[in-house]
Every structure is written in C-alpha cells, then in structure tokens.
Design a protein that fits this description.
single chain; 7-stranded mixed beta sheet; 32 strands; HET; Heterokaryon incompatibility domain-containing protein; DUF8212
Length: 599
C-alpha cells in the first residue's frame, strides 16, 4: 500500500504490519487532469510543477486538510496505484474496501457542491452519489467527512440529518451507513444499493462491488458484462442459500406470458386477443446488471432455506447447493405449479407453446411475510430451462406461513441457462404445440421422442430433415407412467422425387415392445399439400386427435417452413347438441400432462 506523506508529499510503499494505523483516505469523483502514479513520481523532485493541474490541487488540498487534523499519511486512488501494472491494479481493487475500512477518516470531496452548509437539495445533485466506486467509499469507512468545492467542511456521515439524507439519496439503510455488519444485508439489498450507479467501464460495475460482498476475484478488463456474471457466481458459491441473488426483474401478480388455460388452440392459430407478449430474450438465473435489482431491496433469505439445504429431521431430504455448469446453474427449487408459456420466434414470427414451471425462491419480503416470489422457468433445450424478466409475486393465505408452505411443495432440479437459439433453416418443421383437451380418467402422461429416421430434432422443437433423404421423420410415443401406449404420432417429410416441393406427412403408427419403438405400418396418415391442412384421427381405443399443418413461406423465393399443431381430445357423443365424454379404453388424465421429453 502506497501512502503520501502529508508534510513532504513523498510517496512511500508499505507492506503488511508496517502499514501505518493512522491515515486519511480520499473519496472523490474523477475529473480532468487527474495525477497518475507516473506523473507524481516523475516530478517528485519538484512536485509543485504540477500545481497548475486540477488533479494536483485536489490532492494537495486533501493532504493539507489531513495535516491540519494531525494525520501524517494519506491515500488517493489516482496517484497511489500504478495502473500500468495489471497485477498491482488487481491487488489494489481487491484490497480497496479494506483500505477504506481501516482508514482513520475518509474525506469526501464534492467538486459540484458549492454550499457552505448542509443543503439537501444541492446534495442530491452531486455526481458522487451516483458513481459505482463511491458506494464502498461511503459504507466502508468508520468516519466520513464531507467537503464542498472549496474544501470547506459541511457535514459528517454520523450526523443524524446528514445520514438520513444520504440514506434517502442512496437507498442504503441507516444501520449500514452507521456501521452495521454487511453480512446481515441480503444479496438483493446490497445489489439494490448499486442499482442506480454508473461506472466509466462496464467491468467496474462488478469490480466496485467486490468489497461489499467480501469477494475476491481476478480482474480481466475487456471482458465486459462477463465480469458481473463472474461476480454473481462467486457470490453464489459464498452464499449458496441466499436466493435473493435470483430476485431480480419485474415483479408481476399475473404472468402475461403464460398461455390462458383452454385457449391454447386459439393461441396457436392466430387469435391475437389471447396472445401475450413473447418472453424474449430468455435469461439464465443471473442478472445482467445491478439495475435489475431495483425494487427488491427488502428481500432476504427465508428461514425455510436453512431447512431446505440442511436436514433437521431424519426423514428430511437435503437439497444440493446450486452448482455452476458453464454459463448455466444447476439448482434445486420447490415447484409452485406446472404451466405452459407462449413463445414467438423472431424470424419467421411463428408461435409456439413451451412447457415450464413456476419455481419458488427461498426468500421473502421483510415487509410482507405472506409474499412469495416464483420464477417462471421455460424449457428451451434438452434438460435446459431459462427465465424471462418477470417474477410472479403471489401471496399466502393469512393462516399460512412460508415455513409451513414449503415442506408440502414438490421439488425439482433444473439446469437454468440463457437460451441458445436454434436457427430455423428452410424446410424445417416446427412443433408449435401439443394441446391437451382430455378430461376423463386419471394419471399423468407424456410424449417421448423415441424414433428418428434421417431427421434431427433440435432443442426447441424444430425438426430438421436431412437434405437428400426421400423420407425423414420423427416419432412421438405416449407414455403413461413407466408404460408406453400402443401407438405413436409420426411427423416428417415425403414426396421428394422428381424435384417436387417436399410435402409434410403425419400419421399414427402402432408401437412395439416395452421401449415403445415404432413400427412403420400406418394406422392412419396424410400428405399435406395445401398451405393449411389437417388430419383428424378417429379410431376406437384412441383419443380423438387433430394434427394441423401450416406452411410459412420465407423471404427467399421457394423457401418455406412447416409448422404442426397437435390437439388430443376426448371421444364424445352428441346428445341434443350437448357433448358428453364416452368412457375410453385408455385411462386418461384429468388434464393430460403432454410434455416433450428429449432422450
């Protein structure tokens, strides 16, 4: 640590226990003509040659003030760090919070505050309160003195009026301004303190928060937004049970990207009055900026998180702590409920339903114990989920508590990562949705893609046939529990001969064997030749099915994609124009859970 002698203005380097216990430290807004370490050292024999520069005048006045207060040593970030050394810069930034914390006094110099006394209106206009680095410079020191543009003292952090105004400007709780242990502040609360601040370089938004979270990590200028993601990963490893790390975005009491129940077929067939905004883009669990945490300052870890990760009773199942997997996170969360979400590809603008869940965050509002935050998690790939900006805010009943609510919720493990978008190639087939309209019986069911023939199924329900194959398709088999049903839906291409434009083919085939592998003998099938066509399947022992195919022409001449929408519904008879279910030979669920499960 380098310090300036306030009497001689010479810089001396100290290590470990040799660092003086009494020194003043400067907090300021950088401006023009700041004095670097090299400038200061090159002019050490006649340092006053720099006196015409604003940066030197600021340091000189700072040292004078420290000397008047009987302090022999002073530290300034502009000239006490050799910023040409990346190693030294990294060490300094990782140590800076401690340096401010150990200082005898921090002088805050406000170059744009011109009043001689405390004036709340003028104080709110000062740039210093809205910069990233000054957050730790306000919180860390035990003693903070404020000076105006003429180096006149006008307030201290410990003064009740001044402290209340600083709290109102910055959003920092009074207790933490006055020295409360930062460990007692949640991740979301500390992120919210930085949510309205700016830095000159994108990476510094993350680096300026290292001390606030007691995190050390290497600095990699040039990494851009990756720095903030790395910071959150380190925070997650240090505080794995604090789910307020994931409490960012826009809280809503109704998630508008969820498909309205019973309107799925209309949604996929162009009923704009039912179609909500598409959740684009889809994010991972981590935020992209502290700005995302505005509005979540009151969220802190729930006591239920301790029981979730630490077994208390013999029959408790301990959850595994979140784990980093590439750019994603594997995490176990309680499930609020299953849902289907609306998604729209950007180009071409094709609608799709995607399955997902509302997962409960183990954090709660300190001002409202009934509040529960749920993350909508939307499937985008094989084993992968992603989240939109929206967070569902729901409330427990008056008689319920979060800790009583949690043990009864099922839990699942997810890999949550930003969506890796598939490119829709000409000739592709897009599965827009599997719509369930079954009402009778009981027992969950799911569709498994279990058979491929010269076709590739991508992670987003896009079937990409191989270019030179005459027939290419995939098969989906209904699975009820651990047992496959006796039939499969086949989707694919046919009619590729003689240079004709390929046509879409769909049909129903029987399945053979316990693994559900499909045969090639069609019970029913159809070649779709129009821009909009439908195959209706009506066989006893099977549910009724409508397989609708629509062709979308692409901007390039002759290129197209096909979309397929499947509805599975009960067998019904009409009696006086009233539809009533007919008992089926198959036991279908009350609301068939038709999910795309990738093998």
């Amino acid at each position: 640590m380098r310090l300036i002698n306030t009497a001689t203005r010479e810089i001396t380097e100290f290590f470990g226990d040799s660092i003086p216990t009494t020194y003043a430290i400067l907090s300021h807004r950088w401006g023009k003509e700041e004095i670097t370490f090299q400038k200061w050292m090159n002019n050490s024999s006649d340092v006053y040659k720099l006196s015409s520069q604003q940066g030197f005048c600021k340091i000189d006045s700072f040292c004078d003030q420290a000397g008047k207060n009987g302090i022999d040593w002073a530290w300034v970030d502009t000239c006490c760090i050799d910023k040409t050394s990346s190693q030294e810069l990294s060490e300094a930034i990782n140590s800076m919070f401690t340096w401010y914390q150990n200082s005898s006094v921090c002088y805050v110099y406000l170059h744009d505050y011109h009043q001689d006394s405390f004036d709340p209106t003028s104080l709110r206009l000062c740039e210093w309160f809205y910069r990233g680095w000054t957050l730790q410079e306000l919180i860390a020191p035990r003693k903070v003195e404020f000076y105006n543009s003429k180096w006149q003292h006008f307030g201290t952090k410990s003064n009740s009026n001044m402290c209340a105004e600083v709290s109102a400007i910055t959003g920092i709780d009074l207790e933490f301004l006055l020295g409360a242990d930062l460990e007692s502040a949640s991740i979301a609360k500390k992120m919210s303190w930085a949510s309205k601040r700016k830095t000159g370089r994108l990476e510094d938004m993350a680096y300026s928060l290292l001390g606030i979270f007691a995190i050390s990590m290497p600095l990699l200028y040039g990494e851009g937004s990756e720095a903030f993601r790395r910071l959150q990963q380190e925070i997650m490893k240090t505080y794995p049970t604090d789910h307020s790390l994931y409490a960012w975005g826009t809280p809503v009491e109704e998630c508008l990207i969820e498909a309205p129940e019973g309107k799925e077929w209309e949604l996929l067939n162009g009923a704009d009055e039912y179609w909500p905004a598409s959740p684009r883009p889809l994010y991972g669990l981590l935020a992209s900026s502290p700005k995302d945490f505005q509005g979540f300052r009151n969220y802190s870890p729930s006591p239920a998180a301790y029981r979730f990760y630490t077994p208390i009773f013999v029959d408790d199942k301990r959850a595994i702590y979140p784990t980093i997997l590439g750019k994603g996170i594997e995490i176990e969360l309680p499930i609020f409920r299953f849902a289907e979400f609306c998604y729209q590809f950007k180009q071409p603008p094709i609608r799709q339903l995607r399955e997902g869940y509302y997962a409960v965050l183990l954090c709660q509002d300190e001002t409202d114990e009934s509040a529960v935050l749920c993350i909508p998690l939307i499937r985008w790939g094989i084993g992968y989920m992603a989240r939109p900006r929206e967070l569902l805010l729901t409330h427990l009943s008056r008689s319920a508590s979060f800790e009583n609510f949690m043990p009864h919720q099922p839990r699942m493990r997810f890999i949550v990562a930003p969506e890796k978008k598939d490119i829709i190639k000409p000739g592709s087939m897009i599965i827009r949705g599997l719509v369930n309209a079954l009402q009778s019986g009981e027992g969950p069911n799911s569709f498994h893609y279990n058979y491929y023939h010269d076709a590739k199924l991508t992670s987003q329900g896009i079937i990409q046939p191989r270019a030179k194959a005459s027939h290419r398709y995939v098969a989906m088999t209904l699975k009820k529990g651990d047992v496959f049903e006796g039939w499969s839906i086949v989707l694919g291409r046919a009619g590729m001969k003689n240079g004709n434009q390929p046509v879409f083919q769909a049909g129903i085939i029987p399945s053979a064997g316990p693994d559900g592998l499909a045969t090639r003998d069609f019970i029913s099938h159809k070649l779709f030749k129009g821009p909009l066509d439908k195959l209706s399947v009506d066989f006893e022992g099977l549910p009724l099915m409508d397989i609708q195919v629509e062709r979308f022409m692409l901007p390039t001449e002759g290129e197209f994609v096909d979309t397929v929408t499947i509805m599975v519904k009960d067998r019904r008879v009409i009696t006086n124009e009233i539809y009533t279910p007919v008992p089926s030979q198959l036991e279908w669920g009350d609301r068939l859970d038709i999910r795309i499960v990738y093998w």
